[in-house]
Amino acid sequence: MINDAHHENYVSICNVSFQRGDRTIFSDLNLQIPTGKISAIMGPSGTGKTTLLRLIGGQLKPEQGSIVVKSQEINKLSREELLKARREMGLMFQSNALFTGLNVFENVAFPLRVHTSFTEQMIADIVSMKLEAVGLRGAIDLMPNELSGGMSRRVALARATVLDPKLMMYDEPFTGQDPISLGILLKLIKELNTNLQMTTIIVSHDVAEVMQIADYVFIVGNGKVLGQGTPAEMAVSEQADVKQFIKGLPDGPVPFQYPAPDYIDELIEGKN
Amino acid sequence: MNKRTVEVMVGLFVLLAFILLLFLALRVSGFTDNSFKNGYTVSAEFDNVGALNEGALVSIAGVKIGEIDSIVLDPTTYRADVVMQIYSKKTLLPIDSSASIYTQGILGAQYIGLTSGFAETNLQNKGEIRTTHSALILENLIGQFLFKMKK
Amino acid sequence: MITRLQQLGQSTIRVITSLGSAAITLFVVCFRKPQNIGSAFRALVAQLFSVGVLSLPIILVSGLFIGMVVGLQGHHTLVKFGATSALGSLVALSVVRELGPVVTGLLFAGRACSALTAEIGLMKATEQLSSMEMMGVDPLGRVIAPRFWAGVISMPLLAIIFDAVAIFGGYLVSVKLLGVDSGSFWSNMQSSVVFSDDVLNGIYKSIVFGIVATWIAVYQGNACIPTAEGIGRATTRTVVYSSLAILGLDFILTAMMMGGW
C-alpha cells in the first residue's frame, strides 16, 4: 500500500510552520489529503485556510516543514518545475478572479494557451466542452462584467479545470451563492471529482454544504489541526472546538466576548 | 474596440510623432543648414574678436553662408585665430577677400561679415583671409571720443 | 522620545525596503525574457493604445493652450523692447527645452500613470494576478512589463507631439492674433533652436521622465494593499511621487545639459 503507484495521500503537509509578519499562522501543522477523495478544510475565519492553499500551490513558502504534492516537494522546486507542477493543479479563487479584459472564451482558454501548443480548433473544442459541462456554452462570448455572480463562478470553475488537473482546490466556493447556484456547484464539484478522478480540496466554512459532498473533513484553528474525520464522525464528535464549529455554537473554545475587563467592575466604577 | 482598430490607432500615433519630429527638426531648428560635408573651411586672424562666439554666423552681403567653427589664441602672434566653416563649396571667395567683425543691431550678437575681393583665384579649403578688421570695442571708442573732446 | 526614534527607524527601514523592492521589480521587468514573444508584442500594442493614444486628447489641448499662453505673455513683455521678432525663438526654446518634456510628464503622471496604478491595483485586489501566477503565467511579464514599456515609449512620442502643437499655438497667437511677422517668427526660431542641443535634449528628458513615472506607477499598483482603500492610496501616491520625481529630475538634467554633460 505504501509503495503503491498511486500514493495514498496526494498532498502531504508535514510539520509546516508559517508566519506572516509577527503573526504565526501555522505552527507544526500536519495534514494528509487522501488521493481521489473530496477533502474539506474548515475552520473559523482568519485561521489561514486560504494561506494553506497558497502554500500547497507554491505561491508561498513555509518557514519550516515540507509540502509534498504527488511526491514532489513543492517548496523546493525551481521556477520551471513549479510551472510544470502547476499544470496539474487547479485553483478556484474566492473572487473568481476572471480576467476582466478577456471574454469568457479567452478566460477559459487562457491556461491552454499558456501550457499547451494546441491549435485554435482544438482550443475551441476543449473550451466548448468545459463550458458545456458547467452549463454556460451559450455565454461563450460574454465579458466578465456581463455575467451574474453564479455564472462567473461557473466560468472560473471551467477555467480551473480546463487542463484536467489531478488536484483541484476550491477557496470558499459556496460563499454568497443563492440556493440554485449552490446546488449546481455541489453537483459540478462532485461530478468533476468522480469523472476526472481528481483529488479535491474544498476550503469553506459552510458546514451544511460541505458535509453533503466531502469524504473527509479537517478542522483547522490556532495554527493546528483541531480535528479530522469523516462527516459522520465529525457530526457526533464531543471534542469542544469541533463541536462548537460543526454545530455553530455561539460560545465555546472560540469565545463570544472580545477580551475586556470585567463588566460588573466597570459598572461599579462608573457609578463612582 | 476590436484589435485591428487598436493596432491602426497605435500605428497612427507613432507615425504622427515621427512626422512632428521631422517638423521640429526641419522647420523649428533649421536642421538642414548644417551639413558640413559639402563645405570647406577658411581661417582669419584678428587683433580682437570682441564678443564673437563659436557658432556665430558668417555672412556676405548680409546673407548667411557659414558659421564660426573655432576661436583659438595664436601663441606666437597673440592674435585670435578664427576658423570659419563655409557651408557650400559653391560659395567662392577670392583670395583678397576681407573679414570684419560686426554687431547685429546695437547690442546684439556679433558676427563676421566677409567682403569679396577682385582676384581671379579663389580661396581653397583651409585657406586664409589676409585682410581683417577687428571688432569695435566700445570702451576704446569712448576713450577716443573723450580724447578728442579734450582737444 | 525613544518611541519617536523607533518610529523614525522603522519608517526609514520601510522606505528603503520599498525602494529595494521597486528596484527589483524594475530589474525583473526589464531583463526577464518574455514567455511568448508574439503575445508580449500584442500586449505591448494594446497598452500603447491605452497609455499613449488615450493620452493624446489631453496632450493636444494642453499643448495648444500652453503655446498660446507663452506667445501671449512673451509678446506682452517683448513688445516693450521692440523685440517681438524674437517671439519665435522664445516660444520654441521654452517649449522644446522645458515646457514640452515637463508639462507632458506631469500630465502623463496624472492621467496615464494614475490609470496604470489603479488598473494593476484592481487586478491585484481581485486576485487576477494571483490566479495568473497559479496558472503558471508570470504576472510581471504578462501584465506589468507591457505597461512599463508602453509608458517608456509613449512619453517621448507625446512630448514631441506636445512640442509641435505648442509651437503651433504660439504661432497662432503671435502671427495670426498679434501681428508678428511670420517670416521673422520662423527664421529667428530656426537660427536660435539647435536640434541636437535643444530638441534632442528635451526628448532625452522626456524619456527619463517616462521611465521614472511609469516605473513608479507600475510598482505602486503591484505593491498596493489589495483593498479599495489601498488602491486609492496607491493611485494618489503614484501621482504625487512621479510629479515630484519629474520636477526634481528636470532640474538635475537641465543642470547637466547646460553644464555640457
Quick tags:
heterotrimer, A: 272 residues, alpha/beta, 10 helices, disordered N terminus, B: 151 residues, eight-stranded mixed beta sheet, 2 helices, 26% helix, elongated
How would you explain this protein's 3D organization?
The complex is a heterotrimer of chains A (272), B (151) and C (261). By secondary structure, chain A is α/β, with parallel strands linked by helices. Chain A has helices spanning 49-57, 79-87, 104-115, 120-133, 149-161, 179-195, 207-213, 231-235, 240-247, 263-271; strands at residues 9-20, 23-34, 38-42, 64-69, 72-73, 89-92, 167-171, 199-203, 216-221, 224-229. Mean pLDDT of chain A is 84; it is low at 1-6. Chain B has an eight-stranded mixed β-sheet, with no helix packed on it. Chain C is an all-alpha fold and 261 residues long. In chain C, 86% of the residues lie in helices and 0% in strands. The longest helix of chain C is centred in the middle third of the chain and has 39 residues, at 87-125. The interface between B and C is medium-sized, with 20 and 28 residues.
Overall pLDDT score of chain A: 84
Radius of gyration over C-alpha positions of chain B, nearest whole angstrom: 23 Å
Contiguous low-pLDDT stretches of chain A (5 residues minimum) are 1-6
What helical percentage do the residues of chain B reach? 25-40%
Low-pLDDT parts of chain B are none
Supply the number of helical segments of chain B.
Answer: 2
Strand content of chain A: 15-25%
How far apart, in Å, are the first and last alpha carbons of chain A?
Answer: 72 Å
Biggest sheet strand line-up of chain A: 6-7-8-3-9-10
Structural class of chain B: alpha/beta
3D shape of chain B: elongated
Instruction: Please trace the helix and strand order of chain A, writing H or E for each element.
Output: EEEHEEHEHHHEHEHEEHHH
- Note the gap between the termini of chain B: 89 Å
Mean pLDDT of chain B: 82
The main pleated sheet of chain A reads as: 6 strands, mixed
Taking all Cα atoms into account, the compactness measure Rg of chain A is 21 Å
Q: Roughly what percent helix of chain A?
A: 25-40%
Number of strands of chain A: 10
* Topology of chain B as a string of helices (H) and strands (E): HEEEEEEEEH
Largest sheet of chain B: 8 strands, mixed
User: Which oligomeric state applies?
Assistant: heterotrimer
